[in-house]
Amino acid sequence: MNSSLPIGIFDSGIGGLTVTAEILKLLPNENLIYLGDTARVPYGTRDNETIKKFSKELTLFLLKQKVKAIVVACNTMSAVSLSEIKEVAGKIPVIDVISPTVEFAVTKTRTSVLGVIGTRATTHSGAYQAQVRSLGSQFIVVSKACPLFVPLVEEGLVSGKSVEIIAENYLKDINEGNADVLILGCTHYPMLAPVIKKVSRRRIKIIDSAFPTAEKLKKVLAENKLLNLKNKKPKLIFYVTDNPERSLQIANLFFDGKFPGKIEKVKI
Ligand code: DGL
Known about the structure:
Blueprint: E1 7-11, H1 17-26, E2 32-36, H2 48-64, E3 69-72, H3 75-80, H4 82-89, E4 94-95, H5 98-105, E5 113-118, H6 120-125, H7 127-133, E6 140-145, H8 149-154, H9 161-176, E7 181-185, H10 193-199, E8 205-208, H11 210-223, E9 236-240, H12 244-254, E10 263-265
Parallel strand pairs: 1-2, 1-3, 2-9, 3-4, 5-6, 5-7, 7-8, 9-10
Helix pairs in contact: 1-11, 2-4, 5-7, 5-11, 9-10
């Protein structure tokens, strides 16, 4: 396979841009194609069958664009439909967000209790528990579904009293427990990190998927001799399935007002 081919990244919406931003920092030579299914976001409130169907469609779209690797920049799809995505992707390497994040998070806990917040589908799947347990039986996961967080971020509502009240309610049990690490188990949540931090117990370490996932991607590309080492002018393509103008407005919030490209609408 040719190393100049793009990396494909997808999410149910624009939350996966938090992972994309880290990939751009760590792998500045790479051509990228991002796909956000803004017509059907949120996925995390849907049943597993629907999430699997949507995941296959997103994967097929990226394969048609001839990508060299796929990043599932969505915890919900990583939790529910990773095996289906891998099956459709065939020989193309697939990088999820859960395993690299858990590997990183277990190195940061002293109490061995990890808080995880995510969508309903992610928390109900038990994927975090399974991943954490595979790294040691001493680790305990305390999880909480936060279904209002994704729509808040997709609306660009990431601060203020109303968001704080919602976050405080969601984090009540985790704050009262023994967790010293809080995993933001949804790629939309880093946009809410300042609020989450404000309402969290003081010494809890907040961890999101962006950095560990970008590092894992780099490692996988290197192992497969797929790193693009020469490219000086990488091509960045951003697709959504609905409302590109609105997506660009919100995406700008993710990039401090300097979104690195245009956003086009596509049919998948
Ligand atoms: N960014 C997705 C995740 O990481 C959001 C899922 C949703 O659409 O509900 O889970």
